[in-house]
């Protein structure tokens, strides 16, 4: 077991599939009381006393409040939070409607804000907390062609992680972000032809991101906060 995970109450948003599911499963395997949050229940999830699904729309304050109240009733004060819920759309700037822009920001950035805001008072009170927010290399570079809204939303995720780190470091709370790129999930289908551009010679897997998240949620990273960690096989070295 990884130190600092066993017995902790963990929340993972966007946990029905992909990176979120992989992170939540890994936390559960390492003994965390794990809440899987998503709009739809994860397939094949076996709920137990320590593993539960909570329906949640991260863009809604009321939905986040209801889910987090349920988690605290079922488990305890939330100690580990992974802000993973996100959407990805390829739309040229000139064709991006205000509604599409706002939706991208609402899910990817406002969702991380609402969940962090809800979890932080309990972490502060207990003088302990770990927050990992899933950003993207697009948040550093602006993204590939026609992904302005996505890149901006993820840049905001990085900035939010740093702001939380600065404000809550005195209260035993660390906050970091991960910046994955070219991860083989349903969100980014059709990218296999880019594998030859990755120095390590393969696409990333959800498990690669999950292991990085687990490290940042563990006691091994207690002196790391305000960082944006790349998980990209050398695709972007900055």
Describe the structure.
The protein is globular and about 45 Å long. It is of the alpha/beta class and 238 residues long. Strand 1, helix 1 (18-29) and strand 2 form a beta-alpha-beta unit. It has one domain: Rossmann fold (3-Layer(aba) Sandwich), CATH 3.40.50.720. The chain has helices spanning 18-29, 61-74, 98-126, 138-141, 148-168, 206-217, and strands at residues 9-13, 33-38, 51-55, 80-83, 129-134, 173-180, 228-231. The two termini are 32 Å apart.
Oligomer: single chain
CA radius of gyration is 17 Å
- Can you tell me the number of structural domains? 1
- CATH fold label: Rossmann fold
Helix content: 25-40%
Q: What is the β-strand count? A: 7
Strand-residue proportion = 15-25%
Uncertain segments: none
Q: What is the second-level CATH architecture?
A: 3-Layer(aba) Sandwich
Strand order of the largest sheet: 3-2-1-4-5-6-7
Distance between the termini: 32 Å
What overall geometry do the principal axes of the alpha carbons give? globular
CATH superfamily: NAD(P)-binding Rossmann-like Domain
Q: Any descriptors?
A:
Rossmann fold, 238 residues, alpha/beta, seven-stranded parallel beta sheet
In a nutshell, what does this entry contain?
The protein has 6 helices and 7 strands. The protein is an alpha/beta fold and about 240 residues long.
Map the helices and strands:
Elements: E1 9-13, H1 18-29, E2 33-38, E3 51-55, H2 61-74, E4 80-83, H3 98-126, E5 129-134, H4 138-141, H5 148-168, E6 173-180, H6 206-217, E7 228-231
Parallel strand pairs: 1-2, 1-4, 2-3, 4-5, 5-6, 6-7
Helix pairs in contact: 1-6, 2-3, 3-5
């Amino acid at each position: 077991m990884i130190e600092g995970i066993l017995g902790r109450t963990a929340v993972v948003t966007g946990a029905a599939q992909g990176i979120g599911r992989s992170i939540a499963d890994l936390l559960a395997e390492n003994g965390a009381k794990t809440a899987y949050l998503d709009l739809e229940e994860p397939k094949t999830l076996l709920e137990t006393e320590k593993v539960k699904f909570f329906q949640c729309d991260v863009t809604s304050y009321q939905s986040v409040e209801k889910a987090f109240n349920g988690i605290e009733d079922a488990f305890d004060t939330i100690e580990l939070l992974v802000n993973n819920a996100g959407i990805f759309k390829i739309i040229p700037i000139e064709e991006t409607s205000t509604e599409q822009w706002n939706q991208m920001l609402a899910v990817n950035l406002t969702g991380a804000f609402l969940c962090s805001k809800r979890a932080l008072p309990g972490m502060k009170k207990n003088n302990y907390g770990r927050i990992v927010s899933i950003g993207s290399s697009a948040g550093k570079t602006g993204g590939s062609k026609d992904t302005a809204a996505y890149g901006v939303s993820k840049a905001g995720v990085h900035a939010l992680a740093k702001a939380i780190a600065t404000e809550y470091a005195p209260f035993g709370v660390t906050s970091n972000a991960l910046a994955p790129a070219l991860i083989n999930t349903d969100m980014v289908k059709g990218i296999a032809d880019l594998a030859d551009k990755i120095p390590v010679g393969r696409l990333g897997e959800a498990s690669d991101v999950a292991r990085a998240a687990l490290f940042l949620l563990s006691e091994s990273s207690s002196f790391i906060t305000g960082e944006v960690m790349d998980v990209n096989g050398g695709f972007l070295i900055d």
